[in-house]
């Protein structure tokens, strides 16, 4: 069994096709396919069902994948550990973020970190929380920034809360409460709601806040993008809620902070506690955690982002 065979197997499992895996691994597809066949022969089991346009893991492949990923991760960790013994701060950090955070935090985060650590590269994966937790477990990402709390399901996670932010009501500009300084969720009890689709944790945050406020949102529209939801709010189709970081001028919309402790979203950074932590990863964690500690000391209400949200 060769290391490159494990790498090729993992790539096919990750990308779902032999063609894409060969492109990523910079090898001819016939060569990659031949190496997978050799691996299957050695293991005595077929790892993939070959379909016309895809490759699906068999039950044997699904059982073998976490073991192959663990071997590759441990080899990578060993290589990095040797480099660090030579005093090198370089390498990559694989960062996962949920979509409702990535667009707003990433630009400043990358800019600030890259300025302080120019020899460390950042690779970013944007996905929903369950997918990021799975990637953390497999070691295909090093850290994840998500909304808290998360279901740990026995996983040994280190969790660092970074900040909390308010939920903000998005109202059509003609709405009778659009001019208020704050609003209660109970004030929107009979309204039509526009929310993110199932699978987005921010939807769960809004639903939980409504449940605490004894509000049953009448969901009439769902989307995977805040931009689409806000366009529908501006058209008068209903009301919505967005995180404070997503508030920016939208013609026809008004934004009003929602009252109450239940109307806060907590943001945290996660990593697997038993995975080897490289010098590059330690630098990234130190940068992010330090950044938000300084922000909390410098700004606004304790425990929030400290940003003032006004009608825009």
| Unreliable stretches | 300-310
Number of strands: 11
Question: What is the level 1 CATH name of the largest domain?
Answer: Alpha Beta
The assigned CATH architecture of the largest domain is: 3-Layer(aba) Sandwich
Rg is: 23 Å
**Order of H and E elements:** HHHEEHEHEHEEEHEHEEEH
Topology:
Elements: H1 3-15, H2 18-25, H3 29-43, E1 48-50, E2 55-57, H4 59-85, E3 91-97, H5 99-116, E4 120-126, H6 129-138, E5 143-148, E6 157-172, E7 192-196, H7 201-212, E8 218-223, H8 226-234, E9 240-243, E10 253-257, E11 264-272, H9 279-298
Parallel strand pairs: 3-4, 3-5, 7-8
Antiparallel strand pairs: 1-2, 5-11, 6-9, 6-10, 6-11
Helix pairs in contact: 1-2, 1-3, 1-4
Entry keywords:
312 residues, alpha/beta, Arc Repressor Mutant, subunit A, D-Maltodextrin-Binding Protein, domain 2, 2 domains, seven-stranded mixed sheet, two-stranded antiparallel sheet, globular, disordered C terminus
Brief rundown of the structure:
This protein is an alpha/beta fold and 312 residues long. It has helices at residues 3-15, 18-25, 29-43, 59-85, 99-116, 129-138, 201-212, 226-234, 279-298, and strands at 48-50, 55-57, 91-97, 120-126, 143-148, 157-172, 192-196, 218-223, 240-243, 253-257, 264-272.
How would you explain this protein's 3D organization?
The chain is of the alpha/beta class and 312 residues long. It has two domains: 3-82, Orthogonal Bundle (Arc Repressor Mutant, subunit A), CATH 1.10.10.10; 89-312, D-Maltodextrin-Binding Protein, domain 2 (3-Layer(aba) Sandwich). It is 42% helix and 23% strand. The strands form three sheets. Strands 3, 4, 5, 6, 9, 10 and 11 form a seven-stranded mixed β-sheet that branches. A two-stranded antiparallel ribbon has the order 1-2. It has a two-stranded parallel ribbon with strand order 7-8. It is globular, with a radius of gyration of 23 Å. The N and C termini lie far apart (61 Å). Residues 300-310 have low confidence and may be disordered.
